[in-house]
Amino acid sequence: MKNYPNPFNPNTTISFDLSEARNVELVIYDILGREVITLISSQHIAGQHKGVWNASNVASGVYFYRLVVRQDGILSYKETKKLVVLK
Asked: What's the rounded Cα separation, in Å, for the pair 12 and 84?
């Protein structure tokens, strides 16, 4: 999982791969851990996927994105990474 570009203004693309079909949630959080936006919350097939975040309505600063992958409601993968909005 990675995003590019980083830092960015106003758009970044977060890409990830799935080896099998899974339920995916991709959420952006601010530095205080408050949810900013949910980019993805749905079932995805195996393969390469991406979510695009347009951050034109948020302030410059550090944010985090978290990818959570589940199968049949059971957590199979979770990762959090940092991204930077520069205006």
From this structure: 10
- Mean residue pLDDT of the chain comes to 97
pTM of full prediction above 0.85: yes
Q: Is the dihedral of CA 25, 52, 17, 45 positive or negative?
A: positive
User: Total structural domains in the chain?
Assistant: 1
Give residue-wise pLDDT tens across range 63-79. Answer: 999 999 999 999 999 99
| 60: helix, strand or coil | coil
Q: Which domain holds residue 38?
A: 2-85
Cα separations in angstroms, 33 against 14, 21, 25, 48, 76:
19, 28, 16, 27, 22
pLDDT digits (tens, 9 = 90+) for 38-52: 999 999 999 999 999
- Which CATH number is 57's domain given? 2.60.40.2550
Residue type, 40: I
3-state secondary structure of 76: strand
